[in-house]
Amino acid sequence: MASSGEPAAALRRALAPLIADPAGTVLLFDFDGTLSPIVDRPEDARPADGVVERLGRLAERYRRVGVVSGRPVAFLAEHLPASLYLSGQYGMESLADGVRADLPEVEQWRGVMDDAVARARAGVPVGARVEPKGLSLTIHFRGRPDLADEVTTLVQDISRVTGLVHHEAKMSAELLPPIDTTKADVVRALAGGARAVLFVGDDRGDLAALEALPSLAADGVTTVGLAVDTPELPDEVRAAADLTLVGARAVPDLLLALLGGSGS
Length: 264
Description:
Helix content: 25-40%
Strand content: 15-25%
CATH topology of the largest domain: Rossmann fold
Shape: globular
Strand order of the largest sheet: 5-4-3-2-1-10-11-12
Number of helices: 9
CATH superfamily of the largest domain: HAD superfamily/HAD-like
Distance between the termini: 25 Å
Number of domains: 2
CATH class of the largest domain: Alpha Beta
Structural class: alpha/beta
Largest sheet: 8 strands, mixed
CATH architecture of the largest domain: 3-Layer(aba) Sandwich
Low-confidence stretches: 1-6
């Protein structure tokens, strides 16, 4: 069970077997709220200072380093090293070694998503923001938390009309195609043959990935699940993590620790 502000010693103990066996270790990270600070405008999100350089160095040393995000892989590729494995849209898209791969069933939903975006823009309350992502749609109300119920109702209405699936997220609501894939599937696939797996996230979309770790541990894989702690961290994500990371520099310092250094 995780709790806010776990001692640094506990984190060092958790990371020690991963650092000792980089060739057998897979490192996986969410993007928003993890590698990138949360911002008011999603299009403005960028990796925190030091993150890109450290991820590139980690990719040279570890078995695999990946980002498992709800973002489109095109966005991730624009801001992250080419040496990383990129999984976008909750596993519907991937990019590795310059090769793009999408799940074949997504194509039938692109037109439906376009319709959902049009409906969202027509009905979104003033103060909320519509973010189309190609294969998914997010309506943000971070700047107007009082709009949460109105946004949720709109998303549920669009879901009923289009067949897209409503998901709650941090200060937002999402619509996704009803395709049977989650971040857990990505984690399990990338863990194949690994002796250790780390996953770091911060939102409900990361819960499936964190909950995939115990089954890997049962098969003998060393696993570490970390949650980035903020006032918005969902309780269920906190509970699913082994430890929490606290502070604006927590993730960059984590990357430095995985390189064998120490954060400050």
